[in-house]
Amino acid sequence: MSEKINEIAKGLLDIKAVFLRPDEPFTWASGIKSPIYCDNRLILSAPEVRDLVENEMARVIEEKYPECDIIMGTATAGIAHGAIAAHIMGKPMGYVRSSSKSHGRNNRIEGRLNPGDKVVVVEDLISTGMSSIEVVEALREAGAEVLGVVSIFTYETAKADAAFEEAHCEKTSLCTISKLIEFAKAEEYVTTEQGDYVISFTRSL
User: Fold this and answer.
1) How many CB atoms lie within 10 A of CB 185?
2) 3-state helix vs strand vs coil in the chain, percent to 5
3) Helices 158-166 + 130-141 axis angle, to 10
4) Running along the chain, 205 residues long, what does each successive block of 10 average in pLDDT?
5) How far apart are CA 182 and CA 195, in angstroms?
6) Beta strands in 21-107 (DSSP E)
7) For the chain, first and last CA: distance in Å?
């Protein structure tokens, strides 16, 4: 796994999916002001990195959750990654909206989900974990058994750890902020000071 983590870290850095901006912080979906932002949507535009990520996503799901019946992506960023991984695995796929549609069948969960189905949720990244847990709870309310959440990237925050523990849900990430910064410093993508600042920030959350 460590070799793949480094390959994915390098891929994210090479395609400039990771941004460092300590003087002009980004605003995460949670409202937190952050010196770092990881835009995994850029993976979709980079075929080599996309193949690496999606094949590793499929491998991890097959290895950890061989009993998985269906893949569910999170809207919107997890949908494409979930679809590609499901295609590689030959599994059904759907996705969960952030809220129910206001028209048609008023669905929040798209795709055929049967009560008792064993589900793996595919997420692009985990920051505080709250949006992932909302998806998990929606699937549970629909009668699914959520085996775990697999994300491309995690900021490794204490808030996310606490949220997943409280929800009694496993989480796995293909790449972590600590591994990415370790690799970025070694390869001089960032200075030691920049890297240490980012790690200090994420550990404070």
Assistant:
1) 17
2) 45, 20, 30
3) 10
4) 83 89 78 86 95 97 97 93 97 85 62 95 93 94 97 95 96 95 88 88 89
5) 8
6) 26-27, 33-34, 36-38, 70-74, 93-96
7) 26
